[in-house]
Amino acid sequence: MIRYLSIAATSIRAYKGTFVLVSLGFFVLYYAALLLATMLRFGEIPNYVVFHDIIGIYALVLQGTPSLQDAIPIMLGEAWLETGFKDPLYYGVATWSYMLIPPKMLLVAIMGMLLGLFASLTLYKRKQACLLDNDRRLFAIAGIGTTFISLTSATLTWVVCCATPSWVVALAMLGMSASLALALEPLGQALTLAGFGLMAWIICVQLKRLVVTNDLSLAT
Question: What's residue 164's pLDDT?
């Protein structure tokens, strides 16, 4: 484990720019693409933006909810920023909204860092002349893991589907029936864990290959 951590740290130091660019780039592009895709889907430009006092909201939730078991899920679902389209023909009700929720943002940030680490390890491995035939398979798995986490981290609302931010709203927007999308909602946590599991696995594979390569270099 110590050797794995050492190699991971070495690869990040060697390709610091790549690690930072991929990590931050994924985070920014994810939320930008999510908003753009929603705007294109409905053909509407957001007409309101609200920055919520997340600290104040947490304090109110804790004061008004005696049980921490009930308070924590409520707090985790509170948005920091909200934008969307309020239809003036329907009394200003938001027909769709796009939200930034801290716990979901953390998941996306972690995903970005895992992609950054994977990219750094891949470049470091190539520098060590350790190209293997099944690198493409690892890239494909990285794409699957990224898709799982990207989909389940979406925080959108749509009056046709539900009033709370959920990843299944994205499925409904893509054409899936609202009833089927809502039925799939309990699978969100499993898909998120699967996505992180896949990313952890391919990173471990890269680290193991680098350990083997270093051992062979020392032997020769």
Answer: 67
CA distance linking residue 99 with residue 166, whole number of Å = 10
Tokens found for residue 193: 């864990």
Measured CA angle at 165 (ends 160, 167), to 5 deg: 85
Span 34-47, average pLDDT? 91
Q: 79-84: list long-range contacts, CB under 8 Å, 24+ apart.
A: 79/52, 79/54, 79/155, 79/165, 80/51, 80/52, 80/54, 80/105, 81/49, 81/50, 81/51, 81/52, 82/49, 82/50, 82/52, 83/35, 83/46, 83/48, 83/49, 83/50, 84/46, 84/48, 84/157
Cβ partners under 8 Å of residue 91, min gap 6: none
- Assess contact for 195 and 152: CB atoms under 8 A: yes
In this prediction the pTM is: 0.85
